[in-house]
Amino acid sequence: MVIPLANLSFMAFGRQRVSRTPLDRDQLMEYALKSLGARMQSVRDLRRKLIDRAEPGPSGAEAVDWVLAKLQELRYLSDDRFAADFTRLRQENRSFGRRRVQQDLQAKGIASEVIQTTLDEAYEGVDEQALVRQHLERRRIPPPTDEKSTARVLRRLTAAGFSSKAIFAVLRSLKSGEQALDRAEADASDDLA
């Protein structure tokens, strides 16, 4: 069945974007404040949102720059604070490792120096093996029982941003704990017999 190209706009994947009226400087400021009120954002992310809503051309770019400068002046927008809060939330709530948080901050457009400083402060004195165990518990990842499940757990922990040193140490301790439990069960069944 051949579908004429003219009918594609009626299909879900062929939707046309609704054109919005461009916002002036004051409306952009209001939009930015609402957006920041909904969730924290990096300067780059907010700039992208504002550019989509601003007037096309140099006047829209000037308005976006003015809004971002004003928000930074009022201390409503700061990449340093964003990076610190983002890192703290990823570390505490998601139990992510340093490397994963670093990748996420880079994806948000945070400067390398800010990322390095933030991560050094946040992960100073953190026991990475304890963080790996916490991640396993929070995600309800069962201890591996064979090579296939070990590889699966290893992939998940690597994706969560933990170092291979910490991952292997935890997996070894889980394996030795499992062997000790098996020996204890065997000794208990021998005592009963």
Automatic annotation (TrEMBL):
Record's GO cellular component, any one? cytoplasm
GO BP, sorted A to Z: regulation of DNA repair
The UniProt entry, under Pfam families, shows:
RecX_HTH2
**RecX second three-helical domain: which residues?**
78-119
Cell compartment(s), UniProt? Cytoplasm
Q: Could you tell me the superkingdom of the organism this chain comes from? A: Bacteria
- UniProt keyword annotations, A-Z: Cytoplasm
PANTHER family referenced in this protein's UniProt entry, alphabetically: REGULATORY PROTEIN RECX FAMILY PROTEIN (PTHR33602:SF1)
Job description of the protein: Modulates RecA activity.
Q: Which family does it belong to?
A: Belongs to the RecX family.
> Which protein, by its recorded name, is this?
Regulatory protein RecX
| Underlying gene | recX
